[in-house]
């Protein structure tokens, strides 16, 4: 080995801990490679513009149309999932665990603070991306962070955003033990590719990432040294490769840095000790940047997962579109086979007999031939092609059903006359799969993520913060000053959008059916109109509108009559003043 190779090998060789974590990442990543290939095939069908972009490729057909049914199912699920999670502004609730935390002012402050941060921190946009992961991959992963961003206003530096944020983790950038009992109990490794500039910004704006400042200087130093060596030296010294880069030379010559973060329990094979609740960060798969206790007060890594269809003994869940790829393949096959058959019927092959001069086949074409020559169409029976449309329609309907999409949201209704009660029952039954899947996402991922955001805010908020809230009494905006003590209480945040969405629909349907029935007419004398108005106000989220109050119409009618009487008296007085005989 040359001296250069030895020097380069020493420069890029990593410590034992970094190498062990990099090896564990590579092992888990290799084991799930078949799953990643399935995801890629499915992704190609979703975004394909013709069959040449999919695994169908060159199937021998002249036509290459792809029917975007898989794309439509995906968009249908996403729009309905998102609408169910955020049906109105009252989708977030604080549940207290102690008497002190039950104080209305404390709950209102926590809800106001988190509602403000979710609006300013692009929470809904990130949830939308997580829902696409939930549909496309069957797995959504998220973590939380605390950001302190400032901007220059003239010569003064003013806060841009200070607070917790939700962070999406791509399913392609996380590895864990799929055979662990639960995701929370499995160690996890998160991979990220950052530029030097992004790392500097993270070190400056995110309190949990201040340690990156020293890592940036070390990384720049290594890259400066590696650039002195030739490509052949790197090829000889290369002991590993980094995903996304052709070789080690390309990686070190780029402005990108790979970071692997290990979260969980780690067994040190050198000392034989078990280290619990650790976060270990390595760079370039070679050097350990930090090895510290997980800073979260929740006692677990702030990384959360929701799976669409769980597999037995495997934490990698299955997505709603995975089983539909074959049906999409079949639809495209039928569509293009049918189109080619029509082409054959319109432009059939020609049988040329004898001596015939070259000609262009078309209307009013003259064909010159010798005696005994002829040109004949080869007729094909294409009546069976008409059955292809019905086959495609059946496939489309089944794909909607298999994905658990809410059929009524697409305007689809089963045939036959039905009473209002029967329609309601069918709608509820048809939406059970949809409701169960969105509840799983809301409980397994959003609920944990929101409480983690509140935790990181309590841990990192060292100054007062101002949030904008709506005054319920006057209906005007006001600004509140929030401190760390204001958002510290014994309880938990619960997103109730999807669950409230389902309960609301069921409750209103049942109540409407009851009041329109004979039984409802019998209990009307015993029904409180005031309490019924409160129920409707709560179910429909109309508290801010102040539409309902006890006997509101009576008081309004009194005021109206009083104004009418006063107006009549004023008019009579005006008429009397103008008439000298009065």
Can you give a write-up of this model?
With 582 residues, the protein is α+β, with helices and mostly antiparallel strands. Among the domains are: 1-29 and 185-300, no CATH class; 551-582. The chain has 18 helices and 16 strands. The strands form six sheets. It has a five-stranded antiparallel sheet with strand order 4-5-6-7-8. Strands 3-2-9 form a three-stranded antiparallel sheet. The model is unreliable at 1-12, 228-239 and 417-426 (pLDDT under 50).
Structural key phrases:
582 residues, alpha+beta, 18 helices, 16 strands, 46% helix, flat
Which strand-content bin applies to the residues? 15-25%
Shape: flat
Weakly predicted, low-confidence segments: 1-12, 228-239, 417-426
Number of strands: 16
Largest sheet: 5 strands, antiparallel
Quickly count the helices: 18
- The residue-averaged pLDDT reads 77
Decide which structural class fits the backbone. Answer: alpha+beta
Radius of gyration: 34 Å
The strand order across the widest sheet is 4-5-6-7-8
- Calculate the terminal CA-CA distance, rounded to whole Å: 126 Å
**Helicity range of the residues?**
40-55%
List the topology elements.
Elements: H1 3-12, H2 16-31, H3 33-46, H4 69-85, E1 92-96, H5 104-120, H6 123-136, E2 139-153, E3 156-169, E4 174-176, E5 188-195, H7 196-205, H8 212-226, H9 231-237, H10 248-253, E6 256-268, E7 273-283, E8 287-293, E9 303-307, E10 309-311, E11 314-318, H11 325-346, E12 350-353, E13 374-377, H12 387-402, H13 420-430, H14 432-460, E14 465-470, E15 477-482, E16 491-495, H15 497-515, H16 518-523, H17 529-539, H18 552-578
Antiparallel strand pairs: 1-16, 2-3, 2-9, 4-5, 5-6, 6-7, 7-8, 10-11, 12-13, 14-15
Helix pairs in contact: 1-9, 4-6, 4-15, 7-8, 11-12, 14-15
